[in-house]
Amino acid sequence: MASATAPTADWEAVSDTFYRKIQLYTALWDADFNLNDYFLRGAPYGGALALWKDDSKPQPYRGPLSKPSIELYSSAGRLIRKIAWDKGSIKGLGWSEDEKLLVVTQDGMVRCYYDLQGDFTQFSLGNGAEEYGVKECRFWGVGFVALLGNNKLVAVSRYDEPRPRQLADPGLGEEGEIHSWALIPPNYTLSRHVEVLIATGATILVVDASETQDQVLQQGPFSHIAVSPNGKYVGLYTAEGKVWVISSDFQDNLSEYDTGMGNNLPIDMQWCGNSSVVLVWEDEVHMVGPGGVALRYYYDSRVHLVSEIDGVRLITTDCCEFLQKVPGMHLWGPAVGVYEIQTENVDVTESIFRIGSTSPASVLVDAIDQLEQCSPKADDNIQLIRPQLAEAVDACVKAAGQEFNVHWQKQLLKAASFGKSVLELYSSDEFVEMCEVLRVLNAVRYYEVGLPITYEQFLRLTPEKLIQRLLNRQHHQLAVKISEYLRLPTEKIYIHWACMKVRVSTDDEDTICRAVVAKLNGKHGISFQEIARTAYDEGRGRLATQLLNYEPRAALQVPLLLNMEEDEIALDKAIESGDTDLVSYVLLNLKKKHPLTNFFRIINNRPVASSLIESSAREQDRELLKDMYYQDDRRVDGALVILRESMEQEELSAKLEKLKLASKVLGDLKEHALESKTIDESSRLLQLQEVYEKDLPQKFLGLSLNETILDLIRLGYNSRASKLKSEFKVPEKRYWWLRLRGLVAKRDWGEIEEWSKQKKSPIGWEPFFNECLAARNSKVAALFVPKCTHLPAADRMDLWVKCGMLAKAGEEALKVRDLNALEKLRQRAKVQSEIGELDRMIAQVKPK
Amino acid sequence: MAPTIAIDTAQIREKALADLLAILEGVRGKKTLVIDQSLSGPIGLFAKFSVLQDYGVDKVHWLHDAPGDIAQKNILYLARCTPKNAHLIASQVKYYGKIPDQDVDCSAFFVPRRTLVCEKILEEEGVVGDITIGEYPLYFVPLEADLLSLELEHSFQELYLHKDYTSIFYAAKALMGIQQKHGLFPRILGKGDNVRRLVDALLRMRSEVTVDDALNSFALTPSSTIENLIIIDRETDFVTPLLTQLTYEGLIDEMYGIKNSKIEIDASLVGNPQQNAPAGSSSTSATSLPPQSGKKRTVVLDSSDKLYEDLRDTNFAIVGNLLNKVSRRLQADYEGRHQAKTVTEIKQFVSKLGGLQAEHQSVRMHTGLAEEIMNHTRSDLFNKSLEVQQNLAAGSDAPTQHENIEELIYRGASIEQVLRLLCIESCVGAGLRPKDFEFFKREILQAYGYHHILTLDALEKMQLLQQRTSVQTAANARTSYSSLRKLLRLIVDEVNEHDPDDISYVYSGYAPLSVRLVQCVIQKQYLQMTAKGGKGVGGAPDVNVVGAGSTGWKGFEEALRNVKGKTVDEVQRGEDKAVRARMILNGQNEKKMTIVFFLGGCTYTEIAALRFIGKQQEGKRKILICTTSIINGSKMIQSALVN
Questions:
Q1: What is the pLDDT, as a whole number, of residue B591?
Q2: Chain A residues 496-515 within an 8 A CB cutoff of chain B
Q3: Which residues form the Vps16 C-terminal domain (chain A) (predicted)?
């Protein structure tokens, strides 16, 4: 770009600020292309334009072959893709901030075209959309709101997992007239939920998820509503043809402007940045700035508006322009224009800098001019601004970023470079960074790419997303170059390239595979899974398998393998990944798909899989578990399942039934005869318990054998207890213990005393002593001390002491002539008779 | 990424809380929290109910309760990602959807991640459209500064009975999280088949992270603050947890069952609830547990109670003495008021008073607890079973113990108690003799009910209680305690409980095999000396401690051959340049950390023993203990028990 028209040539003042209109691209379409016939929606951040025919206008007949379509163009008018559209009337079309194209049909079907190549996901709005039809839609960065035929609103706030939900009922019924409506995106509202402004009657309703609020205005009906990009302001077009700007909380009145168009309503109204409102009538554009001052532009044809965060794109058949407030505060020097970005420490006021500005930055830019002419004035300039030189350099660097014209970018950067060469200490980071960014911006602004993105937008969009946009446009080469240049990861680009290759290449599969692998080999972080999936989706199954083998992450291979019906491989890969969830997921799928026997065969030799099935079946699907055990010939496990079932039965007969079955299964197995027998025993016990329960005032069912015997003895049914003993072959030892505990519990001391007369006990006599003592009957306990003959005297002495019979203890001590123990006992003795007794014994033992 | 930072458990706690609050914040307005009961304990450790209230939680319901009146429009589910929970959530969402005129907004957060299976269940139940699904990546919960637990209550049962390796995967995820933050474990050592699985998963995750995050490869260079990771599969040593723990904390666990650092005890032991300053007020109110009716009170046992910190790891035998000392000191401190003459002195005393009262409260509670435990330990049943345990562990002829076990059954001891003994016998002695096996099977079924056929079957499947087979199975098929007893000196006869010189004090004479295995790596010399019969000199630290980590299992191959399962020894290297850079950045003489991970759970005694080793090596090494959950013998038996 050779010519150096003054950078302020396209500036215009609006009260005290400047606006500029930059021509970005020319000759977008051929002259015979009539933009009037189309609707146009542009993606934010200089993104693609979507055009579709306006059905309401008469169209020239182009023969039966012309099919309706949505056409995607770059801002420079280059066709990116034509998407065939046969779903009928389009009731809403818009873009998300990551350049997804959303198309909403009359019946509430939403298609989300996630790349610019016509691939889409689809969902339905529901909530009555089918019944009443969609009237209109409004979009924001990540979602949209649809207005239905019954004047209800449905919002979708994300596209990856869309969940359409109805907003509060505006209460207009089906007949209520809505003049216009708009929305405030969730991130700008207090509630953090989307809010919708509806103009009806003379007022505006604010609708959110839970309630509708009437703002009680009188200036309506408003034929247009527009919300500023930062959600703070609302522009309204009133019945008298005025533009009225208010704050979005309806508290402050900001400006009013009379368009003078009377009843001639504008076609569109959009914000230009956050400072002004742009109105369009067929060929006339008004830009209403702050304070109600307007600029007017005239065109030859219909103008379409695309609102951006920092301006607005104006699109006509023959050019694409960008209208914005000149960024930051600006100043106008005598020789050149330099705008300075507002920084905290610079006290910038228009009145100082406007005409005859001597701001350091503008002097610095002048200096570079002088330098090029080899004039010594260059140095004079520098000396003049020496104290503010650092500021001036900063300002030049920043101003360069705002410039679309390469000449002025260079000029400003040169000035900055010159300035900083004089400075001793200056961090060049920002300068370097700006140079890099500008290179990138210029590259993507090039008309063949057609992304007219501003510096502000670039910062907001982030470099990663810019790369994604390039990929959507198939500019892989440029994307790689930019990524490398900005030191960003490139693997995604390669993957994207490979996917495209797989899709569109007409080579045979081996060649494609070789080409892809050759290109991607040795690069970190390549997900072959994604490429393989693309191949599979394209119907190239073998290629998909080949590519999948290069995927290092087992877990990622699984879903695709499942799709490809490579079930067993999928299962193996899932097991290999160690992720049990993945294994379970595969198993769930396989179980649905395969007949049971086949399913069991698959899991049979994979222990990880079969244990997972086993444990989930144990909880949820007993029958499956039984089938599985049967299939595997694990008869014991099968019988145990039946046993478990029997425990869960309420009815005794059902319980017995199950037990019988379990016993039968086990009985067939020689090595489990014991278990089988035990189960029979348990049936027998249950039957007996049922009888007892009928006869005796006590619950028996569910008790164990020992507990049953114990309770019978406690209740005094000794004969029944001993019958149980013999029937179940209870060992003598155990029976003695149970009888003892039962009698003690019954406090049947007489019986115990009787019992103590027996000569021998299979469990010894100590337990008798202990149990009686524990029941606090030392008298009976004492009966058993002499019977504990196998104990040493000292122990027996302790037993006596425990019963509180010190004299008896003394006798034991006397037997072994233990003087020491006797003396200890003597000390403890309290009762006179015992003391006497013990003294006597001590005397016997004491050596004379 | 700050790979040079040493592991700080407080950060893990803060992160867990921050993540939780972010989730709560994501749902606008007042909300009802419906929580999986098994999560309330772990979450209560770091999130107080009042904090949840600040973030809009209005009410808390249990997930397993039937859905009832919900006052709030927003319902937030927080549940472990089990199919059962997914079904419960689905049915509740459906229930709320059917209530006319009620518009509810449900979101479900699965812990520790949203799984394909849960999503599929929600999908099949047809509620996917009505619910926002998210995840809450809660893996490690810090119980103490040196103790991280995954708090996976059922991990023991899943691993050894159901052979469900989910907890291994979560363990790997959790450890991977540490590696991503602090660098690779330079060396991973471990014993047990499940350890092999865990380490394989870790290695695989490492390579996958490299794939995912190609630019950040510096993050995955070996850590300079962590020396090694030692993983012990519970399966290698079932006997240790089966024995009755004899430290103070261990016995509390045996008696009351510590759950998420909390126990429920009789209110009278705690005393005046208002003054329950050290243990209670700091965190009891943490969860939303509805106040227990009756006289039970929940008490948090952690190091915020200084006295407890001193007592917890000591052998119970000396707890009484210690408590006496403390109460005498307290007495003296109170007496201090008489010496306070001047106004300043009085002022000083008064300022101390609050602390004294708190301490007093704590002494009172612990005295009460200790008394209760004492009553228990004096009981005949306890002593009989302890005697049997110690005899079995020491390798005395098993059948001689049978009479005692029989008597316990006849006297109506709990089934856990009896099975614990039989399992010890089986594990120590390679199974019971067929005759004994059959005898006890019959005794147990007749004493405790025939349904225990299932219990016995489960124990057999877990290889806890088996019949001795004559066929010699493959090498490493079971842990041979009889050889290890000598090789690693598991039995130490003279135990000084007051001033212990060996980890065996935690079981009054038996050194936990699992911890001995850790010593094989970090206290080689000491262990070699001990094993040769020479007494380890008062916990003399190894001379070549620094080099010790680099030799792995070296020197103890013979012992390892006698332990069940595969032996793992993996060295993780990074690019040389990066390693050197990191060494320069950190200097080399820093205190290194050993992470001990118990796969399948550990006991309080093992924690005590490791802390004891940590103290011996103070200044040279820090030990961080990680586990899937905290277990004890009863919990092990209960995992097989059929009710």
A1: 65
A2: none
A3: 526-833
